[in-house]
Each structure stands twice: as C-alpha cells, then as structure tokens.
Amino acid sequence: MSEASRDLAQKLQTTMSNHNDPQLIKAALPGYMLMLESFIDEEEPDTDMLLAAAEMYIAYSGAFIEDTDRQKKLSERGFDYAKPAVCQHNEEFCELKSSDYAGFLTLLEQVEEDDVAVLATFGVAWGNWLKANSDDFNAIADLPKVTRLMERLVAIEDDFQQGNGHLYLGLIHSLTPPAVGGKPELAKQHFERAIELSEGKNLMVKVTYAQQYARMMFDQELHDQLLNEVLAADPVVPDLTLNNTLAQQAAQQLLASAEDYF
C-alpha cells in the first residue's frame, strides 16, 4: 500500500510539472494535496510521502497563493511535513531547526551526499515558511541557517535539482541591497551557475535573476535581456513545463512594469 501511494504521488507530481495550463493545476492541486495527505500513516509515516506532501505545499503556496495569511498557513503545513521527514531520515537532523547556531553548524558537518535530496526539500520548505513569515523577527533570525544549509548542500552536490540550490542562494543573497549588507555579486554568480546547470531550460531562474538582482542593481539592460530570452524560449521541457509557463507569465508582467520601475 505504501509503495502504491509513493508511486501515485510521483505520478501526480510528474503530471503537474508537465502541464501547460497553470489555472487548471491551481484548481486541481488542492484535491491532489488532500488525497496525498490521506495516504500518510500518522503512526508510521513514510519519509517519501512526507516529502511529497511538503513539496506539494511548497509548490502551491509559492506559485499560486498571494494572500499573506494563507501563505503563512500553507507554508507552515509544508514545513510541518518536511521536519518529520528529515528527522526520520536521520534522527540527529531533528535538531536542525531548534539548535543554536554553533550546534547547527556542527550538524551540517555530518551531512553527506545521500542526505542532499531530503535536506534540499527541508531547506526549501524552511525558506518558504521564512518568506511567508518575513514580518516575524524570530522567523527572519533563521535566515543564516537556511543560507548555510543551502551552501553546504551545493558544496556537496553542486548540480542537485539541476541547479536549484544555486537559484535559492541567488535569491537569498539578493534579498537586501549592498548598502545594508547584501551580496549582489555573489547572488549574480549563483544565478549564472543555476542557468548553466539547467542549460537555460529552467526559465524561472532568469525571471528570478531579473526580478531580484537586475532590479535591485537598476540594470535595465540585463533585466530586459533576461525576460525577453524567457519569452522567446519554448516552455515545453520535461518536468519544467508548468514552471516555465508560470515564468513566462511573470516575465510579461515584469516587462510591462519596467518603465515605471526604472
């Protein structure tokens, strides 16, 4: 039963990621999420099912939800699935969220290659929760941990998830301008590496690069170049079609507002 549930979860994720109609997925995804949750055994939850549920909530809240209160609820639910998954994978990792920074760094030293996939989902769920709770100082205090976790994963497996580790690090390092401690040049390096590792096929990398870095640096030439490349690209790529379709929609909106921004 557990194996059949895992197989269904994987098929649902594959179907979703290869669809080219975001509105259909937005309407259908809540039903998928509730069905997936119903397959999780509360007494003996399967790690893969917990991760699948976390990834569904990350995708849904990140791509489709704009209401702040709903983002907080849904991102927390996703994080609540990721935490026991990483704990089941390695008991010592249960303390990643709660430990002090020194203890956290000690735990990171134990991370090995076979931990990367689980910790990547955990890290993205954590970052998604942090973003939704950016008005809470206690949540923002976790940002150095999320950053170090992603840096550790990239150091171990540079190309995990076709460069998504570099995408998240680019986003993190471009959250604040250089005048208040931001690291835009480091962000640029990570965005460029993410483009390289995905062979330019993950269009959301270029959109995020334009929105976060180019706008922060008031580099309209780079901004428009990246977004026009996104609009000119074929969005149909295995496991990236939905992501790319959303990226093209975002690119159109960013270009439309460029004149007012710059």
Descriptive notes:
Helix content is 72%, strand content 0%. By secondary structure, it is mainly alpha-helical. Helix 3 packs parallel to helix 6. It starts with a helix and ends with a helix. The model has no long low-confidence stretch (mean pLDDT 92).
Helix-strand layout with pairing:
Elements: H1 2-17, H2 22-38, H3 47-64, H4 68-89, H5 101-108, H6 116-132, H7 137-140, H8 143-156, H9 164-173, H10 184-197, H11 203-216, H12 220-232, H13 241-261
Helix pairs in contact: 1-2, 1-3, 2-3, 3-4, 3-6, 4-6, 5-8, 6-8, 8-9, 9-10, 9-11, 10-11, 11-12, 11-13, 12-13
- Poorly predicted ranges: none
The fraction of residues in strands falls at: under 5%
Largest sheet: none
How much helicity do the residues have? over 70%
* Derived structural class: mainly alpha
The ordered string of helix (H) and strand (E) elements is HHHHHHHHHHHHH
Short description:
The protein is mainly alpha-helical. It has 13 helices and no strands.
Features:
72% helix, Serine Threonine Protein Phosphatase 5, Tetratricopeptide repeat, 262 residues, 13 helices, mainly alpha
